[in-house]
Amino acid sequence: MRRPPIYSRSARKRRAEPPADAASAASYETAEAAPEARPHKQNQVYVRMRALAARHERVLLVASSVLLSALLFFAYTLSLPSVHKLTQRDIDAAVLHTLEKNTLPSPESRAFERIRRSVVRVVQVHDEGNGKKTPSGVGTGVVIIDKGAILTSLHVVDGDEKTRIKVQFANGVESDAIVLRRMPDQDLAVIEAMTIPDDLVPATLRSTQNLAVGDKVVAVGYPFNIGPSASAGIVSGLRRTYSAPDGSEVLHNLIQFDAAANPGNSGGPLVTMDGEVVGVVTAILSPHEQGTFIGIGFAVPIEVAAAAAGESPF
Fold first, then answer.
1. Which residues are registered as beta bridge partners of 121?
2. Is 155 one of the catalytic residues?
3. Annotated catalytic, 187?
4. Residue 78 phi/psi, 5° resolution?
5. I need a surface site. Which of 111, 187, 245, 261 has the fewest CB within 10 A?
6. Of the listed 153, 231, 266, 286, which one is catalytic?
7. 84 catalytic per annotation
């Protein structure tokens, strides 16, 4: 029968008793107490931190929100593509691309469109009796007053007592007309339509004071009874004098232009690129018997023409 191990009493005392010297005893006590003291100190730090966090909970929440927002914004800006700074070359390229893709109307086209509704066809009708009426001449006129006053050339409407005058407006309305005033020295006449459209638009008149040689102009009318037709050119000269081939008349202080004009253009407006009337076409210089255009036309300045109508538009 095995006996249990026998430990000597001295060995048990050796394990249980602390060291004899004081320094070793102090170390022994510290070692024995340390395992219990360390968790206690850690608990106190944790409790203090929780108390601090509870006391400043709102501040911490705001600070954390701001920090999170800043981080998100920073991450967003990093994800954005780099912004290209526009240069003058970029702007020029964009403008050029727009012009290539979108065709804009020409200045001449805009000028014609602005004056078109104010231009009328003027027809002389000869009454031969027995109800028979024959057209004897075609010219052009321009409305200057919305009540139906129309400027034209005198030779377009001049006739005998059997001559009647008819006008046709841009919208197709036709009307008889009468001559209100004649100015033979300027080959001008003012006529008035008996019936006028409700949407009649008078032309805008412009002084020739600043008109210069080389300025672009457009002549609008019914050449050879075709129209309204537009032809573009420039002012070729100012204060010109025109003498009729047969010596019947001499006109002074005229505007010379090279926009194509032919029989039927007489009385029509000469307009700027803004569609404003600066003259009334009166004659062309042509060596041909047919009177076809060779590049020299004349117009009465609008100041003189407006005075014929009793207007002072400037």
1. 140, 168
2. yes
3. yes
4. -65, -30
5. 245
6. 266
7. no
User: Which residue in the list 155, 231, 236, 258 is annotated as catalytic?
Assistant: 155
For 251, phi and psi rounded to 5 degrees? -115, 140
Burial class (CB in 10 A: 0-12, 13-18, 19+), 55: exposed
CA distance readout (Å), 26 to 18, 29, 236: 10, 5, 125
| List 153, 187, 231, 236, catalytic entry | 187
- Which single residue is written with the structure tokens 């430990």? 7
Residue 22's φ and ψ, nearest 5 degrees, are -70, -40
| Cβ–Cβ < 8 Å for 281, 268 | yes
The model's pTM: 0.67
Confidence of residue 143 (pLDDT cuts 50, 70, 90): very high
Strand 229-243 to 188-193 pairing: unpaired
| Integer angstrom CA distances of residue 136 from 87, 142, 225 | 65, 20, 12
Tell me the pLDDT tens digit for each residue of 17-30.
555 555 455 555 55
Residue 60 has pLDDT above 50, yes or no: yes
